[in-house]
């Protein structure tokens, strides 16, 4: 990396305690020169190898970090990017503690002088922005600096870089600016970029189009004759659609199952259509399609990648579609009984103790660990990579989102009582 720069960093983490079990889930480095010009921006999501903590704060979804590098995978490149720089952050103490802990876990170490020599724009606000407030948003507002997506590492780091440049404009003759950059250049410890540099993993934006899992199924395969393979795929689909959400894990499992069973894309689409039509037929059994049933059919249709024409035909009037000879059982066969064990994972919208109390009142047994006797795992994020979620998938235990808990498990129990 070029020498004599400011390396403005920001991290998003799973929590507040790096010395305990919290980890970095996203990191960004924005490189700034003495003139205050941004010369580089690098950022990546990081697989923290645990659940993501309070996702409502940082907004990172578990599906986004499934293919993200671990910190150990980026440690060499990060070391190179920081070499020859003065580190800067808004609340540097927080980011520095996480950096130190993560480098230690990765079996590497930053030079002892590096982090203590850094600049904290939050602390500097006392001098340059007295009374403005200490948050990054407060400081940015004082200069009309745009903070586009708060708690996004890349945007926070870039806003902090602009904030530092404004400080330098307010005090252009301060000797410390040049002194720190000269010291950084003189103490550079890693001038060679890593031979293998990973492609950063970025957040998926709300506007980006995600590839539907059906598009990942091979078009032509030597299909296994007979209905057994189809029923096996449909059984997996039953479980996956239990909470009317297809997590990235479930999508990958459907793709790999179709491949293993020799079912090609056109056959999958046919199975999806027949599966959907049997659900529509069940919904119309009483001759009326309720608003809730209509919403359910629309959700399933979108998840299965079906054409809108099929949804329209199934919902505008009672379907009279000719079914194929092979019977498609659209019922999942999954149900909870009184006494079944339910495990919770992740930070949910209510305290865990309150949710467990509701489960107990409904006749279920909240359990703290996943064993083969557990019937259901409820996750704050269905794509959770927590140890509990990994173990549940290993045992074939359904992993559902919190909404399923309220709408199906506890609501169904209330109706029965």
From TrEMBL:
SUPFAM superfamilies: BRCT domain, Ribonuclease H-like, TerB-like. This is Bifunctional ATP-dependent DNA helicase/DNA polymerase III subunit epsilon. Keywords: ATP-binding, Exonuclease, Helicase, Hydrolase, Nuclease, Nucleotide-binding. It holds the Pfam family BRCT. PANTHER family: DNA POLYMERASE III SUBUNIT EPSILON, PROTEIN NEN2. The keyword Nucleotide-binding applies. GO terms for cellular component: cytosol. It comes from the Bacteria. Gene3D superfamilies: BRCT domain (3.40.50.10190), Ribonuclease H-like superfamily/Ribonuclease H (3.30.420.10). The gene is dinG. GO terms for molecular function: 3'-5' exonuclease activity; helicase activity; nucleic acid binding. It comes from Paeniglutamicibacter gangotriensis Lz1y. Residues 5-173 form the Exonuclease domain. Transmembrane segments: none annotated. The keyword Hydrolase applies.
């Amino acid at each position: 990396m070029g020498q004599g720069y400011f390396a403005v960093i920001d991290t998003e983490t799973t929590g507040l305690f790096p010395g305990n079990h919290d980890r970095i889930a996203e990191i960004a480095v924005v490189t700034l020169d003495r003139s205050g010009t941004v010369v580089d921006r690098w950022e990546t999501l990081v697989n923290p190898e645990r659940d993501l903590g309070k996702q409502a704060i940082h907004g990172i979804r578990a599906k986004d970090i499934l293919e993200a590098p671990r910190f150990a995978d980026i440690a060499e490149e990060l070391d190179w990017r920081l070499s020859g720089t003065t580190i800067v952050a808004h609340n540097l103490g927080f980011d520095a503690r996480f950096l130190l802990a993560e480098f230690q876990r990765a079996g590497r170490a930053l030079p002892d002088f590096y982090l203590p020599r850094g600049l904290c724009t939050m602390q500097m606000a006392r001098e340059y922005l007295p009374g403005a407030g200490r948050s990054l948003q407060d400081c940015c507002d004082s200069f009309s600096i745009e903070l586009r997506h708060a708690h996004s590492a890349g945007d926070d780091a870039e806003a902090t870089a602009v904030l530092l440049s404004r400080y330098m404009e307010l005090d252009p003759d301060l000797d410390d600016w040049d002194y720190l950059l000269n010291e950084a250049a003189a103490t550079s410890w890693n001038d060679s970029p890593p031979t293998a540099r990973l492609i950063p993993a970025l957040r998926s934006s709300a506007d980006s189009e995600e590839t539907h899992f059906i598009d990942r199924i091979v078009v032509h395969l030597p299909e296994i004759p007979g209905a057994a393979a189809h029923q096996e795929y449909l059984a997996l689909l039953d479980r996956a659609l239990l909470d009317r959400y297809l997590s990235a894990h479930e999508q990958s499992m459907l793709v790999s199952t179709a491949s293993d069973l020799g079912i090609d894309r056109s056959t999958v689409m046919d199975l999806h259509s027949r599966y959907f039509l049997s659900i529509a037929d069940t919904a119309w059994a009483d001759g009326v399609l309720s608003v809730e049933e209509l919403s359910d059919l629309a959700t399933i249709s979108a998840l299965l990648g079906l054409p809108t024409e099929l949804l329209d035909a199934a919902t505008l009037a009672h379907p009279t579609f000719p079914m194929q000879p092979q019977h498609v059982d659209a019922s999942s066969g999954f149900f909870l009984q009184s006494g079944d064990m339910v495990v919770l994972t992740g930070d949910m919208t209510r305290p865990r103790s309150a949710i467990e109390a509701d489960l107990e009142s409904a006749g279920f047994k909240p359990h703290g660990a996943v064993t083969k006797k557990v019937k259901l795992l409820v996750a704050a994020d269905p794509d959770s990579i927590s140890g509990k979620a990994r173990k549940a998938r290993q045992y074939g235990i359904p992993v559902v989102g919190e909404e399923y808990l309220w709408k199906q498990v506890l609501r169904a129990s209330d109706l029965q009582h």
